[in-house]
Amino acid sequence: MELTGILPAIRNMKDFEKAIEGNHNHVIFLETRLSQIGNLVKYSKQKNKIVFVHADLIQGLKADEFGMEYLVNDLKVDGILSTRGSVISSAKKHKVIAIQRLFALDSTAINHNIKLINNLKPDYIEVLPGIVPSIISEIYDKTGLPIIAGGLIRTTQDVRNALAGGAQAITTSRSDLWN
């Protein structure tokens, strides 16, 4: 599966309704509660959406092997986002799309994350903030993995700049940018 274009990132129910009715094939759940995620995923699947979940941000879910089994085997999510190497390894073990979130805070953080990514080989890397095209390009050059830009994407120009910098897709919770 190739991820391209805008990937709606959902933080609240208003955005969920907008994303579910939109013409995007994918939805990403960034923040929700364990008591809600099952119904959200089920409804999304009924609407033929490809569902990704940020495993670290589900309140009440421990992002460990048992939490992954629940997301993959019970909820049938299509992919997992995480900052944690163990979660990425588990996602790959369960044969769902693994997206490693990388916070480009400074050179040390980038170099540490690149070493981790080169060991784990996630399917995609989500670079945050996604508004620095030169960092997107550098991370792609050092890993060879497809890049998703996210974080602080506020305008259509930010989207264009990230794509021009080498991002294959954009995650944003700004629903005005979804179209």
Automatic annotation (TrEMBL):
Pfam families with a match to the protein in the record: G3P_antiterm
Entry keyword set: Glycerol metabolism, RNA-binding, Transcription, Transcription regulation
Origin: domain of life: Bacteria
One example of a Gene Ontology biological process annotation: positive regulation of DNA-templated transcription
Coiled coil segments of this chain: none
Keyword Ion transport: no
InterPro entries: Aldolase_TIM, GlpP
A molecular-function term among this protein's GO annotations: RNA binding
Function: Regulates expression of the glpD operon. In the presence of glycerol 3-phosphate (G3P) causes antitermination of transcription of glpD at the inverted repeat of the leader region to enhance its transcription. Binds and stabilizes glpD leader mRNA.
Protein name, UniProt field: Glycerol uptake operon antiterminator regulatory protein
The organism of origin for this protein: Aquibacillus salsiterrae
